[in-house]
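Running log. JK asked me to keep both predictions on one page so they can be read side by side. First protein, sequence followed by its tokens:
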Amino acid sequence: MSDHAGQAVRNRFQPAPRDDAADLGKLRRMQRISDADGFIRAAAIDHPENYQILFDTDLGRVGFEEVVDSKLSMIAAMAPHATALLLDPVWSVGQAVVTGALPGDVGLISGIEDLYYRPDDSPVGFDTTLRLKPGWSPAKLSLLGCDAAKLVVFYRADSDDATAAAVHDVVASVARDCATLQLPLVVEPLWYPRPGEDVQDPAVAARRTESVVAAAGSFRRAGADIMKMEFPTTLTTDAGRAGADAACERVSEAVEGPWVLLSAGVTFEGFADQLGYAARHGCSGFMAGRAIWGDGVGRRPEDERRRGERVAGERLDALAEILTAGAPRSWRPLPMGDAARAVGADWYRTFGE
């Protein structure tokens, strides 16, 4: 995004401060997706076609029931090790609730974006246009008892002003809907390369870092309660590793609030390495997918799938240990001595209005 567009976003979406009682519903839901220390430890298994392809590259050979059974089995295995699960409405949200695969004491998050699968001509496998999923809204998530909504935004901060403004308008509109419902909004900006760009090129890598940092701030100001962020550099190069601490610090400064790390297709070992950097510089948790459960999904022998499920739980526990090494909490409790001042006797009369 240009400097002019960035300033426009800051001016238009700077949130107004609110008193403690006004956001009690949102705070309660934040508590439900966090552990007692305020860390968000979420397993994301809301993947659409990129989950199906783990069974067969010909998606026409992958049955609905096969995917549902796979997701439910992995959800049940991961739930005891996570504070929340990020589930999709097609194959997992309703099914996990009705079967109890997702226990009542584990938070529930679902995405409201509509992803168009384009593996042949998209660098990220999906159309990068921002669309909301028809028939699936913050209101329905709230009615179901979900604890947060998630919105993926394929975005580059060097987009033209009109494109940047349009995307931020959509996010701001969704944020207003979520705020009315006291439903926390998780925004997940994903950078993508343009044709001819090599992500290993230092100049391209630098542009990506700048975009990740800028998106962290602009979408937070557009109304996101939690930012779900890519790691801002790559740890596979000397330059990326050397700049990782500073880049993570810049993300935290830009967000000025809670942010969690996504795994973006890296290995578990690679993700644990990234989380170590991020947790030292303001990251409050993770919402990670294939790096956790990738070894247990697909048409594998039964013993291999069960082993993959056990490994997924072990990986979640290992990531939790990294967080407890010093990451900040995603929400902060008010001292008990301040409760009567912050939440007065009549707070319930106007709450939600």
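And the second, directly underneath as requested:
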Amino acid sequence: MNSRYRLLRNWENLQRATFDGVGKYDVPQIFPADTDCDLWIGFNFAKTCEDRENHGVHFFVDDYQFNRLWTDPDRYVPMLKQFRAVLTPDFSTYTDFPMALQIYNHYRKHWLGAYWQLNDMTVIPTISWGDEDSYEWCFDGEPRNSTLAISSVGIMNDPEAKRLFVAGFNEMMSRLNPTRIILQGELSEECEVDGTEVVKIESFQERLRNLRKAGG
């Protein structure tokens, strides 16, 4: 195998940077941050965005649209630095995934978030969880008393998914005590917000509807 390819592509990005690990799985720590950004676009729209300094980038899109950030992270740093803020990539942690894959996706999210902070970006952590067993690791590396981001899209109409979301949300509030929550989707009345500010961002479907209305 070509040695340059091995240097650039292998070793799970450890040749680029290593970070102090948190918890049993040495998850890179993300430090507290805040942003006044109220305009958010999905990563799939980032390349064509013409007003980057006033927009933030979220990753509430299918994983295949941003896996390239992990395989070639330096390629996207110059573009992402032009945005007001970025959320950490929402690599999936579905409950029917093997636990090893869920933990790996949590690690990848945190490595990229820590790497972006190293490159002077404003990084807001995206929090996700699976079932109660994921609490052992899914909050490792997340900052306390900080702005956090979550998505509930596609969850509230499934009773079991809703139950897991509400339980994980309340666990997140207890453990991380966020100062602000950037939310895509809706919160049910069982979610214990405790006065924390919630800022909503549009889902892709809402964005399309609003664009159509604006176009007449």
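Observation for JK regarding the second prediction: The first helix runs from residue 3 to 9.
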